[in-house]
Amino acid sequence: MLKALTTRCSAHAAFGAQLRRHVPAGEPASPLLRLLRGQNRRSPYLFRRFFCSDSTDGSDPVDTAGLEAKRVDAGEEAAESKSSAIVTTVVRPEDCLTVIALPLPHRPLFPGFYMPIYVKDPKLLAALVESRKRQAPYTGAFLIKEEEGTEGSDSEKNVYDLKGKDLLNRLHDVGTLAQITSIQGDQVVLIGHRRLRITEMVSEDPLTVKVDHLKEKSFDKDDDILKATSFEVISTLRDVLKTSPLWRDHAQTYTQHIGDFTYPRVADFGAAISGANKSQCQQVLEELDVHKRLKLTLELVKKEMEISKIQESIAKAIEEKISGEQRRYLLNEQLKAIKKELGLETDDKTALSAKFRERLDPKKEKIPPHVLQVIEEELTKLQLLEASSSEFNVTRNYLDWLTALPWGEYSDENFDVIQAQKILDEDHYGLTDVKERILEFIAVGKLRGTSQGKIICLSGPPGVGKTSIGRSIARALNRKFYRFSVGGLSDVAEIKGHRRTYIGAMPGKMVQCLKSVGTANPLVLIDEIDKLGRGHAGDPASAMLELLDPEQNANFLDHYLDVPIDLSKVLFVCTANVIEMIPNPLLDRMEVISIAGYITDEKMHIARDYLEKTTREACGIKPEQVEVTDSALLALIENYCREAGVRNLQKQIEKIYRKIALQLVRQGGYIEPLFNEVKAESNSVSDGSLIEGAEAESLEGSTDVKESAMEAEIVDSSNKEMVEAEKIVEKEAEKVERVLVDSSNLVDFVGKPVFHADRIYEQTPIGVVMGLAWTAMGGSTLYIETSQIEQGEGKGALNLTGQLGDVMKESAQIAHTVARAILLDKDPENLYFANTKVHLHVPAGATPKDGPSAGCTMITSLLSLAMNKPVKKDLAMTGEVTLTRKILPIGGVKEKTIAARRSDVKTIIFPSANRRDFDELAPNVKEGIEVHFVDDYSQIYDLAFDCTDKAQ
After folding, report:
1. At a CB cut-off of 8 Å and minimum separation 6, what does 239 contact?
2. Is residue 903 a contact partner of residue 759, using CB atoms and an 8 Å limit?
3. Which of 519, 521, 735, 778 has the fewest CB atoms within 10 Å around its CB?
4. Which residues, 6+ apart, have CB-to-CB distance to 267 below 8 Å?
């Protein structure tokens, strides 16, 4: 044991040498430092004197100084008391039995340590100042308990608001008697003396409590376990002190004020300077068993040691990385300098300039002079800038964009009208107006020898092929295709680019388009132009005016490039669902081509020639494996896909073919394993025969005629088995029936029908008339229903239901007035509207409706009710009516005509002003429909009630 302690002593002597450098010149060395340096010659039991003070409680520095004075002469006594005793006051610490409770928010205060604290409570601060003036500069420092749901500053604020018992309940019972060394403003500096425990409360504001002074439990100073634990704490502290200068300062300050180290003080010192949380430190403070306290402290300092090692490894790794990068940078710079001297390689700036000039040389004659001048100026500027400057990167990116654009480079256009017609018909069925306009564009270009850019806007409901036709037009014209969507766009910089001064600045979409396609005459499809947004970054619709103006886009100015760009050769094709949403100045610059919905015949052709073919190939199904009848397609279109477009029709066809693919795989699942099994058996037979033949050949050394004949017979038999296996597979394949999709089993593939007939009545009853409406999804039929509520003299009124908009409500009021006047003209004695309350309803009630085109339908419905006459069978009408009974034109003629055909309407009434729109419709749309064009409602009256009058 003595030998082990001697070894420990030599180790701690080295630790003391490390601490010695931090003692100020002229001051006597502390007992801890003298002990660790091995300079204490007063006792042969060096470590025993270090830990085992003769003090009874091991925590009173005054008693320790007095006991130390008994062992030394007077001069040494004065020196020791001067260096290790706490400031002498009139009131001794052990006499303080009632103290002011001072809450500590972050960490507990340990004996022998200083702690500055800010006191926010003015009454508490005034009480501390008063206590210090009365020569009783002591207070009780108690840690605040952690409370769930509060952290940091929130818990501090809560404590500052508490008083009396509430504050007492938030404080730990065990704290520290602290001496107030100074007060500056609201900052109070404390130094801990000894442990306290709260016994009871004396006063509430400020909180004053009675306390008991705590002493450590008695312990055996010569206990080997206690010594070993304390030695391990000292050893760990020594290792930590090597890595942290701040900890060395803590050790020096502590030994100057507390005097000799004892076992309790070593535990307090280790816990106080560790980075443990406040609950762990409070646990050390409350522990009165010295051995347990040392064990708790040992755990904390061990954790600190591990953290220090991790910190050291992180610092070392970062230092190695930084030094490695610096070394690599220096070597690269030296290598560049050497290569430059030898003429082996040019520097970055020269290489960049060479790259940019290499781009310019092939198209230098095509670049406009003003652009070429800007490029030359920027190249000269690039040579003068340092490669590490931010301006260098900006200039390099700017030159990169300028030299990458296709200045004066155009693709060879196709001026063959027949070839263009063929390409357009391959990709799309119908769309005659669009195709005709593109062919006109090609014809003009052929006659002129060159083509100019145009701005075309395709408007129509979703799914009619607006976006896909753009790609076909580009293929027909042999132009590069570029598409970008402006739906929801709210930043002008997306169109016109950012200023180069901004970080991460980029050109606008058109400059990106030209760089991407590599030609100056692409076809640019601007999708969803009716859904442009508007935000804090400007109005993109206004920025599009310059881009889509044929008079201005020849000198389009991008904010990033800041040089004019010629976009006059670009063909712009825009798409929109509702052109009313496009701002008028922007709409004025575009040539609008309306694409209405497809009728049933057109959808049948599209499904047969395009959708079914592509879907079948995508699913890997052969044409002979499946048959979809015309009746199935017709039922699919009528009952599932009534939309104006064909996108939903494509989805339903894909659904059918997916189910067919699953059905085919399930039916053919037993064929492939059977074929593989037979094939494997035949292969094994042939392989076995060949092996036997080889063995016989090796044994005999020569081939016999009989053996070769036997071998040939075996091979022939295996071939016969293979042929038989193939026949079996073919027979099994014939058993797999061809999948037939008919109207009878269509429900098994796509589920129950989504739509039912728009037509509710075969013969419309009295007070009900069929109208025609336009929606974003195409046209539809709707009924205007009127019914009598009550009748009595002077009770004439009109009730409206069916989610009608403001315009439609006004149309109903006009219709009521006109119907009342017409009834008086036809039958002056009939006072039906004056004495009857009428209810007008437009089903379906859940669908919002608005628009003026139902005026004539409402009048007819009211007159039918008033005269008790039904209207002509299979009649539908649309048109806006004025108070003078004039019929005004409406929109959506094609959509409404298609809706009438779908509902088997035979007669349609349109305003005369819409005759031109109806004449432009395809013959198959107008086939089988009788159309009447009217200017005045009297003509509608004759058409609607003429048949009824004759019958009566």
Report:
1. 305, 308
2. yes
3. 735
4. 233, 284, 290, 293, 294, 296, 297
Distance CA 940, CA 931 (A): 12
- Name the region of 827 (left: φ>0; alpha: ψ -120 to 50; beta: rest): beta
Catalytic residue among 227, 496, 894, 896: 896
**Token couple for 158:** 């809560």
**Count of other CB atoms within 10 angstroms of residue 730:** 11
Q: Give the single-character DSSP code of 93.
A: G
Query: Exposure of 700 by Cβ count < 10 A (0-12 exposed, 13-18 middle, 19+ buried)?
Result: exposed
- For residue 193, give the nearest of 180, 182, 211 by alpha carbon: 180
* C-alpha span between 42 and 76 (Å, rounded): 12
User: What is the distance between the alpha carbons of residues 24 and 21, in angstroms, rounded to a whole number?
Assistant: 8
Is 886 strand, coil or helix? Answer: strand
Residue where the block lists tokens 């769930």 = 148
**DSSP 8-state code for residue 881:** E
Q: What CA–CA distances, in Å, run from 427 to 603, 612, 648?
A: 14, 13, 18
Phi then psi for residue 516, to 5 deg, are -70, -45
For residue 585, whether the previous peptide bond is cis, meaning omega lies within 30 degrees of 0, is no
Backbone angles phi, psi at 719, to 5 degrees: -65, -40
Catalytic residue check, 853: yes
Read off the amino acid at residue 254: Y
The three-class DSSP label of residue 164 is helix
Amino acid 731: pLDDT? 52
The backbone torsions φ and ψ at residue 367, rounded to the nearest 5 degrees and listed phi first, read -75, 135
Lookup result for tokens 């050394």: 701
How far is the C-alpha of 405 from the C-alpha of 472, rounded, in Å? Answer: 25
The two structure tokens encoding residue 47:
């470590």
76/819 Cα distance (integer angstroms): 126
Q: Contact, 167 vs 156, CB < 8 A?
A: no
- Whether omega for the bond prior to residue 844 falls within 30 degrees of 0, making it cis, is yes
Q: Which of 230, 682, 780, 853 is catalytic?
A: 853
Lowest-pLDDT choice from 289-293, 568-572, 913-917: 289-293
Across 558-714, the runs of DSSP E, i.e. the strands, are 564-565, 571-576, 591-594, 626-628
- Tell me what the mean pLDDT of segment 524-547 comes to: 84
Q: How many CB atoms lie within 10 A of CB 199?
A: 13
- DSSP alpha helices (H): ranges in 220-366? 224-243, 245-258, 263-273, 278-286, 290-342, 348-360
- Cβ–Cβ < 8 Å for 464, 648: no
pTM comes to 0.54
Percent over 70 (pLDDT), the chain: 77
pLDDT at 68 over 70: no
Q: Does residue 143 contact residue 195 with C-beta atoms inside 8 Å?
A: no
- For residue 3 the two structure tokens come to 């030998």
654's enclosing H/E stretch is helix 647-667
Residue 745: pLDDT above 70?
yes
CB 353 within 8 A of CB 382: yes
Is residue 896 flagged as an active site residue? yes
C-alpha closest to that of 367 among 359, 479, 507: 359
Where would I find the H helices in 751-880?
A: 806-826, 832-835, 855-867
Calculate Rg over the CA atoms of the chain: 50
